[in-house]
Design goal:
Strand content: under 5%
Helix content: over 70%
Number of helices: 11
Largest sheet: none
Low-confidence stretches: none
Order of helices and strands: HHHHHHHHHHH
Shape: globular
Structural class: mainly alpha
Mean pLDDT: 87
Number of domains: 1
Length: about 270
């Protein structure tokens, strides 16, 4: 890949993974708009691993607490940290099941469509507005139980549809359930840890088994993504204490409308093969 593509992909993933505007959708759009060869799923997943590392570093206190709580649970002592770890685990099950289904049926390759990104950006942007505008602001992560954890987890599974946004749909679900904005973001990010790790290990293992080399391009993309993603998380967590999701809703709808207009007027947006 050219260096400008590496830098742009890292910026896109690092920013859009945590802002509720869909990282996978933007990663598909980049090669389509600039007429680059599609960077492929392996490069995409390496950038996601950079995002995963950013979450682990930023939320290290929560991660350590959940690990400690899990160990306590194995000893028969149930703590608040152990319960949170349990809720993260059960919230991850839906996306693992749906992801495995898409992978083994080959449907995941059929979802890399610009039209699908545009439609999902609009539809899920509208849902985000409704949940944020009318959802109550009375629950924190400490109030999490298994029912909302499963609901948010099922919402996360929808993010395998490009343009949906994993962070966006999970925050939307949490806001609809009455969680405060920063708390919705916090649980969304914690929920991303096992899902991203599992997907990364599965795809990287499959690629290595098929003899696909992990290139320096993809490694550099992942490293740059970590830096950008960490800054984005810090920015978003501060932002959500002071404002609503409305700017992201406007962006999503505007993006979807512009893309549909470009497609209608015949602008070449098809994704090239690698």
């Amino acid at each position: 890949m050219p260096i400008e593509q590496i830098i742009l992909l890292a910026l896109i993933q690092g920013i859009t993974e945590f802002l509720p505007i869909s990282s996978s959708g933007h990663l598909i759009l980049a090669p389509a708009l600039f007429h680059w060869a599609d960077q492929g799923v392996l490069t995409d997943i390496m950038t996601h691993m950079g995002s995963l590392l950013a979450v682990l570093v930023y939320f290290w206190r929560d991660v350590v607490a959940m690990l400690r709580g899990s160990l306590d649970a194995l000893r028969g002592r149930i703590t608040a940290e152990g319960r949170l770890a349990f809720y993260v685990v059960i919230g991850t099950i839906p996306i693992i099941l749906v992801g495995a289904f898409l992978k083994f049926t080959g449907l995941s390759d059929q979802l890399r469509s610009v039209t699908l990104v545009a439609v999902n950006a609009i539809v899920f942007g509208i849902l985000m507005y409704i949940a944020d505008a009318y959802g109550l602001m009375r629950r924190k992560v400490s109030d999490m139980t298994w029912v909302p954890a499963v609901i948010v987890g099922c919402a996360q599974a929808l993010s395998l549809n490009p343009g949906t946004s994993r962070s966006g749909i999970t925050m939307t679900a949490a806001r609809g359930l009455g969680f405060e904005r920063p708390e919705a973001a916090r649980f969304s990010f914690l929920l991303s840890i096992p899902a991203t790790a599992a997907a990364g290990l599965l795809i990287i293992g499959d690629a290595l088994e098929r003899g696909v080399a992990i290139t320096w391009d993809s490694i550099i993309c992942g490293a740059l993504t970590f830096v950008v993603a960490f800054a984005t998380i810090a920015f978003l967590m501060q932002l959500l204490r002071r404002m609503s999701f409305l700017p992201f809703v406007i962006y999503r709808i505007a993006l979807g409308v512009i893309l549909l207009a470009l497609i209608y007027w015949g602008f070449p947006l098809s994704v090239a093969s690698t």
